[in-house]
């Protein structure tokens, strides 16, 4: 065997996909991944707003109604954060 001959590690079979199709697939997958990352960041920012806003509402005002509303708003924030990070799958049945 000469050093000029190179044997393909996959047995030399054609993958059945051309370069343009491969580029389109990789480009689409990368774009989707980047958009999903940005969306997760936005959801986590919204969740932090709800959590800290609810805590502020619950702790700054006196009275039972503000405590109940504050805790409720904080729970909504925690649910948003759990959905954004994939901890729960409450909304997966609607997708």
Tell me what you see in this structure.
This protein is mainly α and 95 residues long. The chain has a domain at 47-94. The chain has two helices and no strands. It has helices at residues 19-60, 64-85. α1 runs antiparallel to α2. The longest helix is centred in the middle third of the chain and has 42 residues, at 19-60. The protein is rod-shaped. The mean pLDDT is 84.
Helices, strands, pairings?
Blueprint: H1 19-60, H2 64-85
Helix pairs in contact: 1-2
Order of helices and strands: HH
Compute the CA-based radius of gyration. Answer: 25 Å
Largest sheet: none
Return the average pLDDT rounded to an integer. 84
- Helicity level, as a percent range? 55-70%
Number of strands: 0
Shape: rod-shaped
SS-derived structural category: mainly alpha
Instruction: Provide the low-confidence segments as ranges.
Output: none
End-to-end Cα distance, whole Å, is 56 Å
Helix count, DSSP H or I runs of 4 or more residues: 2
Please report which band the strand proportion falls in: under 5%, 5-15%, 15-25%, 25-35%, 35-45% or over 45%. Answer: under 5%
Transmembrane segments: 33-55, 67-91
Keywords: Membrane, Transmembrane, Transmembrane helix
Outline of the structure:
The chain has 95 residues and is mainly alpha-helical. The protein has helices at residues 19-60, 64-85.
Spell out the key features of this protein.
95 residues; transmembrane helix
């Amino acid at each position: 065997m000469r050093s000029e001959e190179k044997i393909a590690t996959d047995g030399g079979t054609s993958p059945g996909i051309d370069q343009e199709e491969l580029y389109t697939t990789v480009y689409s997958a990368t774009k989707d991944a980047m958009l999903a990352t940005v969306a997760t960041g936005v959801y986590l920012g919204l969740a932090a707003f709800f959590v800290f806003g609810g805590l502020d509402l619950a702790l700054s005002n006196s009275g039972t109604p503000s405590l109940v509303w504050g805790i409720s708003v904080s729970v909504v924030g925690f649910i948003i954060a759990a959905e954004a990070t994939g901890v729960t799958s409450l909304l997966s049945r609607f997708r």
